[in-house]
Amino acid sequence: MTLQQLEYVAAVDKYRHFVKAAEACGVTQSTLSSMIQKLEDELDVKIFDRDSHPVKPTVVGERVIEQAKVLLFNSSQLIESVKTEKEQETGEFSLAVIPTIAPYILPKMIKYIRTYHPKLSLRVSEARTSAILDRMERAEIDAALLTTPLSKPKLLEIPVYYEKFIAYVSEGDPLSKKAEIESSKFPYDRLWVLEEGHCLRNQVLNICHHKSAFSAVYEAGSIDTLVRIVDENGGYTIIPQLHYDFLSERQKKNVRKIVNPEPVREISLVVRNDFVRERLLNIVSEGIRSAVPESMVDSALKKFAIRI
Length: 308
What we know:
CATH architecture of the largest domain: 3-Layer(aba) Sandwich
Helix content: 40-55%
CATH superfamily of the largest domain: Periplasmic binding protein-like II
Oligomer: single chain
Structural class: alpha/beta
Number of helices: 11
CATH topology of the largest domain: D-Maltodextrin-Binding Protein, domain 2
Number of domains: 3
Number of strands: 10
């Protein structure tokens, strides 16, 4: 039994004519008739007396039609409820962000939403990817801003922007003499990275083609700390492109482009497959876009709104 079949039954009851009902439903008479016949076979009853003119329902058919109209009404109410929920611009929205994204996005995103959508109550938390995914699985948050892909079938990933990585090299390091550094030419013994648990740590080690334990004495908890360690102790680290604006004018001179290949991370809004508040998701996406250069924004998002 399908809603489509119930709609055909209701149409025949309304018009008392199979051809007119088919025209109203935008299908051929044979399609409408065969679908009603399948429903009758499934229920093992005759809903309409086809020999009468005009067509009329049987006694049992009248009860079927009555229940069909109730189901169709409830279905339309459900559709309207979901549509309202999708288009709603007010309410509470909880967003989790990983620490290696939060400093660059949250200040401007929060300002954008407070300025243009003051009725939206945004609750933001910061945590590492594993903790965020656990909270999302328990439906404790609406969405997350994470590096992707995650390969989680129960989650929907919506790419928002792409961010390059750059090298931050101490003034006395041999790498400082290069204008560009090939990703395969990074020495491992002078590399400083984030501590275990940060997804950026693994991305950096992959850029440097280095998966074994490294020899640095200290693994930092934040990108800002990494930069300071390099300033004081030498060596180098690899940082996201958006951290460039957080550097002093002197520190910016220590930045080097990475080439062959040029490493990039994908940043996505991630929601559960059952998430429906489409309009709120678009508002948050607009806020994120306000914090990054337009050249970094996903090409599809530049043209189309998010549809889920």
